[in-house]
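Re: beginner question about structure tokens

> Can someone show what the tokenized structure looks like for a real chain? I only ever see the sequence side.

Sure, here's an example I had lying around. Input first:
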Amino acid sequence: MSTETLVSELNQALDTLTRLHREIGTPYNQINDDKVALFQAISQLTNQHVHDLTTQRDTLRQQRDQALHQMAKLKRLMGDFVPHPSPPVTDHKSLNDQLADLKAQEVELKKGYDEKLNKVKTLHDKLRNYAIPLGGFIDSELLKEEKDIDVSLPKLTALEAQVKRCDEEFVSRSTHRQKRYAHALFEYSIIVCVTYNQRSKKWCSYGHCLM
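And the corresponding structure tokens:
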């Protein structure tokens, strides 16, 4: 229904009400009160409708702004410089269309972030596995708990370098322990194999007396 049609129908309805009041003989004051009550009801209904639509628009704007902030945060966590987000200049697009576009972009962005996040978590797990054998050798700053985890290239590079460093240190320490163990085992075997023969008054090894 167009505005012209609405006004035309409203005027017809008012004319009908006036004619009915005349036929009935309704006092002038009561007729005026009825008109005021009718206009107030129409005004309240219109205002309520405007209020509902305004609330709907503000909710969509808020959701759009939240999507922009979330995307900006994900980009920063991935190492991209992002200035303070502002609503896109898309006057030709409705808020519903803007929000749908942003949500689709956010899904793709979140997918890329999650892929990098899995790499960071894998590297974190490797470093935590070295916590007991290597102790303070590990850079604890790289394992600091974060609400929003940085997955930028510098962070990934630092974690990979730290894991490599720990791998090499663990191998080095393991090799050193193995050498120490082999040396201790060799010394123990000499002690066990070489005994003193009381009868011959000589040191013997596997039953053969040593000179």
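Each token stands for a local structural state, so reading them left to right follows the chain. The CA atoms of residues 88 and 98 lie 8 Å apart.
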